[in-house]
Design goal:
By secondary structure, this protein is an alpha/beta fold. The protein is built from 21 helices and 14 strands.
Length: 540
């Protein structure tokens, strides 16, 4: 039962107005204002509101117990006992496919905290889209052709790989060493360029040789380590798409020819540049180098041109990619293709300082998770919580503290916020879940209608609005909206728990109803945290 939609449908017969939440349940649950209509009709807002409210009352809107007028507002009061029967949220399957690309870090080292925000936002969106009813396929776009991978391949020729280390960290060590060597010996630049040309030419001609084998080994070796890290964060990708695929299948070259036919490609020898002035962009998009090889952006156009045919495309990208993403969209428009929707996120930092993969000054996600686990263990010991759930608390704390901040906002990650058991951290919500479990060890029985207090009404309303929280995430591509909904749900539940006796309630019908609300709270928290990739411990 979707009461809000029912209200909207009935209101639409009389005026075009948005249905909003009221500030508190003493003023009802939803409201509309008639000021715009009153201005058009040049009538008193209160009179207009009363006329419409009278007509709406005659309709007996399902789930609405009363309708009252406050000035120019029409306020709707819900039948809480009735809507309490409809607290399980389910969405119908949509006949629509979404291809969601996220993380896509270069395979030249481990993920760091910047990649972490990308991965957590992307994975949370995947889970929420699927729950909403979409067919979702997640992509990790593997950059196996850039200069950075050429450096790794050259580094593996000159240095010994430390096979005792986690694979992505071992590759990072090679990458750092070859960069240092390059600073000391600039002549190595020719070797790097040669590797890039030979690799692309081999792929173009579908030749498997020592060069392609070296690239394949380096990329897969690093990806093994990256996948292990993602798995520790409860993140899995459906498909790993190598950009070299679009050299092998020739689509890159088809795209180049199609772009030339638009008359917007400028040729300077072997260098091809795309003129995007018609889109208000003065900077040229370089498509090929002097040696004839393609660039990442060229292959990215081919990748998007290909996948957009299969469904709606959504990319999660750092805010520093805004110009590149806009140029990509312009190129696709020239090809008469649809364009991806981009979810941009700002940067996250640590009090410890900046990170640089090239010089080796970075904090890896693995180190970050180790620190989270260590701190979670300390909190567990302080609170007499079993240490075997520290991992769930640690991963939940990291994921939640990152996802609860709206993507367009930069922030500093603080451990005291992440491991907050009292107000707004994942442990605070996990603890509310555990409290529900303990209460539900008692039999609930059949429900009978009872008089409800304010705390019960607030809890029913918050659980019921879970569906709208999910819809808002889907609409705005901001999983932070769900995270903040869950914080509010845990707060409202704790208030209900403190004010309303449950197991000690003498009225059996009221006791059963309250246990029913506890069960629905538990289910909603569990579903919500799962949509954010966070596990619920059975005890704390």
């Amino acid at each position: 039962m979707d009461i809000k939609r029912e209200i909207e449908k009935n209101v639409k017969e009389f005026l075009d107005a948005k249905v909003d939440k009221t500030p508190n349940i003493d003023m009802g649950d939803y409201c509309i204002n008639v000021f715009k209509l009153a201005k058009e009709l040049k009538k008193n807002p209160k009179e207009i509101a009363e006329e419409i409210a009278k007509k709406l009352k005659e309709k007996n809107i399902l789930g609405v117990e009363d309708i009252k007028v406050f000035g120019g507002y029409i306020n709707f009061y819900l039948d809480y006992f009735e809507i309490a029967k409809y607290l399980d949220t389910k969405f119908e399957k949509k006949n629509k496919k979404i291809i969601l690309e996220h993380t896509s870090a270069n395979p030249n080292g481990p993920l760091h905290i910047g990649h972490l925000r990308n991965a957590i936002i992307g994975d949370s969106l995947k889970r929420i889209f699927k729950f909403y009813g979409y067919d979702v396929e997640t992509h990790y776009y593997v950059n196996d052709m850039g200069r950075q991978m050429a450096l790794v391949v050259l580094g593996l020729e000159k240095f010994t790989l430390d096979k005792e280390k986690k694979k992505d960290h071992a590759i990072a060590e090679i990458y750092i060493k070859i960069n240092k060597l390059l600073e000391e010996n600039k002549d190595l630049e020719d070797e790097i360029k040669k590797l890039m040309v030979e690799y692309e030419n081999s792929l173009k001609n579908n030749i498997e040789n020592e060069i392609t084998k070296k690239y394949k080994f380096a990329v897969e070796y690093c990806l093994d380590g990256i996948k292990e890290t993602l798995n520790n964060l409860n993140i899995e990708h459906d498909v790993f798409v190598w950009e070299s695929n679009y050299i092998k299948n020739g689509l890159v070259y088809e795209i180049l020819e199609m772009l030339k036919e638009t008359g917007k490609v400028e040729e300077e020898g072997n260098v091809l540049k795309l003129n995007l002035e018609d889109f208000g962009i003065e900077k040229r998009l370089v498509l090929t180098r002097e040696d004839g090889t393609t660039l990442y952006t060229t292959r990215d156009i081919a990748y998007h041109f290909d996948k957009i045919k299969k469904g709606k495309c959504i990319d999660v990208l750092g805010a520093d990619h805004k110009l590149t993403a806009e140029m990509l969209k312009c190129a696709l428009k020239l090809l008469n293709s649809d364009v991806p929707e981009i979810v941009f996120y700002e940067f996250i930092s640590l009090p410890e300082g900046s990170m640089s993969t090239r010089r080796g000054r970075f904090i890896s996600t693995d180190e970050f998770l180790e620190e989270a686990y260590k701190r979670a263990l300390e909190e567990c010991k302080k609170r007499n919580i079993s240490e075997d759930i520290a991992k769930k608390i640690a991963v939940g704390a990291v994921r939640f503290n990152i996802v609860k901040v709206s993507p367009e906002k930069s922030f500093i990650f603080k451990w005291e916020d992440a491991l907050d058991f009292e107000k707004s951290g994942s442990p605070f919500i996990q603890y509310a879940y555990v409290r529900c479990i303990r209460l539900l060890e008692k039999d609930k029985g059949e429900l009978k209608k009872v008089d409800l207090c304010k705390e019960e009404k607030e809890l029913i309303k918050q659980i019921y609005e879970f569906r709208y929280a999910v819809e808002e995430v889907v609409k705005n591509k901001k999983p932070s909206l769900l995270a903040n909904y869950l914080i509010e749900l845990a707060k409202i539940f704790n208030k209900f728990y403190e004010k309303c006796p449950i197991l000690k309630e003498s009225n059996e019908d009221l006791k059963k109803f309250r246990l029913y609300l506890v069960e629905k709270t538990k289910n909603t928290i569990e579903t919500g945290l799962n949509l954010l990739g966070i596990e619920c411990p059975e005890r704390m």
